[in-house]
Design a protein that fits this description.
Chain A is mainly α. Helix content of chain A is 68%, strand content 4%. Chain B is built from 23 helices and 19 strands. In chain B, α10 runs antiparallel to α23, α14 packs across α16 and α15 runs parallel beside α21. Classes of the chains: A mainly alpha (383), B alpha+beta (606).
């Protein structure tokens, strides 16, 4: 298929399917398979209760991914602010009516499905920022005043998520927004100023935080402080990692995880379990797979003809990378335990659906890489 | 197609920087993983094993106590405990009600089980009742389908088949008290029992054995997943006592309802064949723990069942001490065997009058006759002539005034007073009158039954340094160890003791052993427990008319057979009246039984 063909505004579905990056889907499948194996092990060699539901979700998620990829990227551009508005409404609702889980109001029970608005917000924020920066002229981006709108776009959901309180998601929202600001060309001095502002507001933030968040941070700074309480998780995780050694104890042979010393072994601490059973080799192997996913994301972003596609692709890639980074840093005791799952590997429906939805958008960017996106919906195309 | 706008270039440049940053971050995570998994792997691997493996102590089988013929005196018995595991039971309350229909369960027990079931983790069994009878075990097993979570566990508990017959020897075991806690983890095990008295205590280390271990894999909640390795440990050593339970039992029964004590020693070996204190107690309830009422009853009994009178009951030896006085005189050379004294029934010293037990007096006596008839005035005179310090030194050579070294805890030393002792302890000068009463084994003089039996054994063995023992683990005294007395002096005393039982004028002639070859030689002793007034001396009250606690102690020491002594004995009957009437017949029967068993080949074996 020639470049000229795909530049057409309208491709047929089979044409679009031909443009899908099946290599990326294969790598995602490999990563998810690592998760299936570990959930099988976490259940002591049983397909239930984790492996089969997770496989089913992954199947549904991949189907959704391809479906989303078939939708024209201009559709996502057109409705970016709508998605953002829906996310904000959901966040407001969850702050007041949400179900309490794990000590924070995070879940919204819609009777049919349970929605975690903070997950929706991650994608919605990137969509909104990508659309905003897509519309800006290069010379506007380097100025200060045009940055106030995107700053507001970031701070509103971040504040709502903080209120839940969900420290991990708030940090991820800020970081992924920072990435988009950065690659969109915002001057470095504004970053410096933002960092100074954040540091200056730390004491205020500390006051606003809940006791359990204080605990997490203090325990991170000094794990010995509470070896049987919050520090127990990190200590047991480190013990499991160390016990795994270079090549691990073998599949389903991890004593720390199988004897329940390791908390949340099928969700947040699944990387620890992998590294206990397959050692450093297994841990680094999974990290390389993740690196490959990120590389695909970069390739897709750089190849995109529109700024919207580039920002959306890189933003989503960065969210994915942040998941990996925070989770592994958390289980190795480098950052406080903030409850961020390992993407596609941790058991759990919400984060998997969010991620595959995000990869669907990225795939849409890829499939429609040469489609010009107008500066404003209905306007002239711009790159 | 690139319309060459700046922002696509900026994007590419900054994306490259960002990508580089991501590579660095991932590398950092890899380095961190390497640190944890390779550099510090040993430390964490060890911690993981410590997490996973629990070492459980297996309490070793406690060694048995056997009598000299191998009969079990303290053994371990299967004991059945009823347990309920809340996790398997589901509704503990309902299961307990089912149980109550089968066997007795009081409301208190039910409340306790429910309390413990709620407190402990649900997979830990809670003890419902201990010491189930076999019928109850069968009842529970048959109804097992209706009793979810209920199990019967077989354990071991200490059992004393002879109950109160040898409690003073075996002692008892009980749960470890706080004062007995050591670093030894075995001692902290809830099923471990420690020897609290008797041989159970003195040989506790040998009886304990070495604990075994069971390495079990546990999960984070302490639930046992599987056993990884097991070391059975080493059971405790069985200990063979020198006691002949046949003789011991006969001796206890012979005392009847009297309160008292006896010790029988094999003169040749020092083996203690019987060591009796009556009344005694059943050591078994101690294993499970006494109730408050049981404990109170034992402690408040005026006859002191918990006190081993044979080694810790201290009595003035009375006239059984006269051999010591005689030997002091002979050995020191101050008096010869022909020393004669005229007994008018009393002796006056200064302003005090010392009476002889025989109101009219004995008339003229030599040393042998004085022993035979137990004349008090004769020994007042001898004691006065030799002095208290020589008497004390002599009695110490026979084992009085110090612990005999019997392998039992709690032995008391008695007292052989000296003038220096009185000055040091009482702060008073020794008086002549003090010496005079020492001559008949009264005054400050205190001895225990085992000491008196040892004294008889050393006399009977012609001055061997016999050393009493309860187990073969304690070595015999060497055959050439002597206490250093001239044979002719001992022979004179032995002739005196022979006449006590085997001549018509002897004080214990009526308690003699008539059977040829079994005859015994002995010495009576009657100990006043309070000063007797002259009025009482004249009244001659009958024994039954005096309150029990004011009656005299009756004592008797003896050995048999008279010509080649093998067994020595001392008998004390507390408040039993005179030595000749209360103690001598008991001693005779026990010595006869010992010899009968010996001639039947029973004691000779082993």
């Amino acid at each position: 298929m020639s470049v000229r063909d795909v530049k057409r505004d309208c491709m047929t579905i089979p044409e679009k399917l031909g443009q899908v990056s099946w290599g990326l889907i294969l790598v995602l499948g490999l990563v998810a398979s690592v998760g299936f194996a570990m959930q099988y092990s976490a259940a002591n060699g049983n397909w239930q209760p984790w492996t089969l539901p997770q496989m089913a979700r992954f199947g549904v998620g991949i189907a959704a991914l391809i479906a989303i990829a078939m939708v024209d990227v201009r559709f996502w551009h057109r409705h970016a602010y709508l998605v953002y508005a829906v996310a904000i409404v959901l966040l407001v609702i969850v702050d007041f009516f949400g179900t309490v889980g794990m000590g924070a109001q995070r879940w919204l029970d819609l009777y049919v499905i349970q929605v975690q608005p903070s997950e929706v917000a991650k994608i919605a924020l990137i969509l909104a920022l990508a659309r905003h920066f897509h519309a800006l002229q290069a010379e506007d981006v380097v100025r200060f005043w045009p940055l106030l709108v995107p700053a507001g776009l970031v701070l509103l959901p971040a504040a709502l998520v903080m209120k839940q309180p969900d420290l991990g998601t708030a940090a991820m929202l800020l970081a992924s927004a920072g990435v988009i600001f950065f690659v969109a060309g915002v001057r470095l001095r504004w970053f410096a100023i933002a960092i100074v502002l954040v540091l200056a507001s730390l004491p205020l933030g500390w006051k606003m935080m809940h006791d359990y968040q204080h605990d997490r941070i203090l325990t991170y700074l000094d794990p010995e402080r509470d070896p049987l309480g919050t520090g127990y998780h990190i200590l047991q995780s480190k013990i499991a990692l160390g016990a795994g050694g270079l090549f691990g104890k073998g599949f389903m042979e991890g004593t720390q995880s199988h004897l329940s010393f390791l908390p949340e072994r099928q969700t947040d601490f699944i990387f620890t379990m992998l590294a206990e059973e397959f050692g450093l080799v297994g841990g680094v192997g999974l990290m390389l797979l993740y690196g490959l996913v990120v590389a695909f994301g970069y390739a897709i972003s750089l190849r995109s003809a529109s700024q919207f596609g580039r920002l959306l692709g890189l933003g989503l890639t960065s969210v994915f990378f942040l998941y990996v980074l925070i989770n592994i840093a958390m289980v190795t005791g480098l950052v406080p335990v903030v409850g961020v799952p390992l993407p596609l590997v941790s058991y759990g429906g919400t984060s998997m659906m969010t991620l595959l939805f995000g990869f669907g958008l990225m795939m849409s960017v890829h499939v429609h890489r040469d489609v010009p996106v107008p500066r404003r919906p209905g306007g002239h195309a711009t790159n | 197609m690139n319309r060459g706008t700046g922002r696509s270039k900026t994007f590419a440049r900054r994306a490259a920087i960002l990508g580089g940053g991501k590579v660095l971050l991932l590398t950092g995570l890899g380095v961190r993983l390497h640190d944890l998994q390779v550099k510090n792997a040993d430390r964490y691997a060890l911690l993981a094993e410590e997490n996973r493996i629990n070492l459980r102590l297996l309490v070793p089988r406690r060694g048995h106590l056997l009598d000299r013929f191998g009969i079990g005196v303290a053994i371990n018995q299967q004991n059945y405990r009823l347990l309920i595991t809340p996790e398997h039971s589901g509704d503990v309350d309902a299961t307990l009600s089912e149980l109550a229909a089968l066997l007795e369960l009081d409301a208190e027990t039910k409340a306790r089980v429910l309390r413990e079931a709620h407190r402990a983790q649900s997979f830990l069994p809670v003890t419902v009742r201990e010491n189930l009878t076999w019928d109850e075990v069968a009842l529970v097993e048959v109804n097992a389908p209706d009793l979810p979570g209920v199990t019967v566990e077989a354990g071991r508990s200490r059992f004393y088949p002879f109950h109160d017959l040898a409690a003073n020897i075996t002692g008892y075991v009980a749960a470890v008290s706080e004062a007995e806690l050591t670093d030894d983890p075995l001692v902290r095990h809830p099923d471990f029992r420690i020897g609290k008295s008797g041989v159970e205590k003195s040989y506790d280390t040998q009886l304990r054995g070495e604990p075994g271990t069971s390495q079990v894999e546990v999960n984070a909640y302490g639930r046992v997943i599987r056993e990884l390795a097991r070391d059975e440990g080493r059971p405790g050593d069985d200990i063979e006592l020198t006691i002949d339970m046949g003789l011991q039992e006969m001796a206890v029964r012979r005392f009847g309802t009297e309160s008292g004590s006896t010790a029988v020693i094999d003169v040749k070996t020092g083996d203690v064949l019987a060591l009796v204190t009556v009344p005694s107690y059943d050591p078994e309830p101690f294993t499970r723990g006494l109730t408050r009422q049981e404990w109170k009853a034992l402690v408040e009994d005026p006859r002191g069942p918990l006190n081993d009178k044979s080694i810790a009951g201290q009595y003035p030896p009375g006239s059984t001490f006269k051999m010591m006085v005689a030997l002091t005189a002979l050995d020191s050379g101050i008096l010869g065997p022909g020393h004669g004294v005229f007994c008018p029934g009393q002796m006056v010293l200064g302003n005090r009058t010392f009476h002889c037990w025989k109101k009219g007096g004995h008339g003229s006596l030599t040393m042998v006759n004085a022993l035979q008839q137990s004349c008090d005035v004769y020994f007042y005179d001898v004691a006065r002539r030799v002095g208290v310090d020589r008497i004390a030194a002599m009695s110490q050579r026979f084992g009085l005034g110090a612990v005999t070294g019997l392998d039992l805890p709690g032995e008391k030393p008695g007292l052989t007073p000296t003038s220096a002792w009185k000055e040091a302890v009482k702060g008073e000068k020794w008086q002549h009158g003090d010496t005079v009463v020492i001559g008949i084994g009264q005054g400050y003089m205190l001895t225990t039954p085992i000491q008196l039996a040892l004294m008889a054994a050393r006399i009977g063995s012609n001055g061997h340094a016999v050393s009493p023992r309860l187990t073969r683990l304690k070595p015999e005294a060497p055959p050439d160890a002597m206490i250093g007395l001239k044979p002719e002096h001992l022979a004179l005393v032995r002739e005196g003791m022979n006449l006590v039982t085997n001549s018509e004028r002897g004080t214990a002639y009526r308690a003699r052993i008539a059977e040829p070859g079994f005859e015994m030689a002995g010495k009576t002793g009657t100990v006043q427990v309070r000063r007797i007034t002259n009025a009482e001396r004249d009244a001659k009250r009958k024994l039954e008319d005096i309150p029990w606690a004011q009656r005299d102690h009756g004592l008797f020491v003896a050995y048999a057979p008279v010509h080649d002594p093998r067994y020595a004995i001392a008998v004390v009957v507390e408040h039993g009246g005179s030595g000749s009437k209360a103690a001598a017949p008991i001693a005779r029967d026990i010595l006869y039984e010992a010899q009968r068993r010996h001639s039947a080949g029973l004691l000779a074996r082993s």
